[in-house]
């Protein structure tokens, strides 16, 4: 069965706006769009949350080209249409953020737990990138 939302007709702009609204409604104090060079497509939503009185930046990317490869592997007919892949990728990302916010509203998790991998470190990398590329943050496990 193909990936979720593969039949969506919802525009990427609408999905992006819905994500932005969810972030603002849950405490984001700023949202910035990072664009792909030369395409005009939004590559990431960057946003700021106040955590313990400090502004913390986050970067939520939409890796739609990687998503396109999944559609190709699943033999989805329109996998080679860039606008289609971009639109479906943003819709799936929107659904993920919506699910995370629903979990937050149960008070079982806090916003930092949800978005920690996307927190931007002082060197401009996300926490995920920092851990995966340096390996230093996890330690030996002892």
Explain what the structure shows.
Helix content is 43%, strand content 18%. A three-stranded antiparallel sheet has the order 1-2-3, with helices on one face. The N and C termini lie far apart (42 Å). It contains five helices and three strands, in the order αβββαααα. The chain has a domain of 98 residues. With 142 residues, the protein is an alpha+beta fold. The model has no long low-confidence stretch (mean pLDDT 91).
| Biggest sheet character | 3 strands, antiparallel
Spatial strand arrangement across the major sheet: 1-2-3
What is Rg?
A: 16 Å
Could you say which structural class the secondary elements and strand pairing correspond to? alpha+beta
Count of DSSP H/I helices: 5
Tell me the total number of β-strands: 3
Kindly state the percentage of residues in helix: 40-55%
Question: Termini, distance in Å?
Answer: 42 Å
Order of helices and strands: HEEEHHHH
- Mean model confidence by pLDDT: 91
Q: Note the overall shape.
A: globular
Which spans of ≥5 residues are poorly predicted at pLDDT below 50? none
Approximate strand percentage = 15-25%
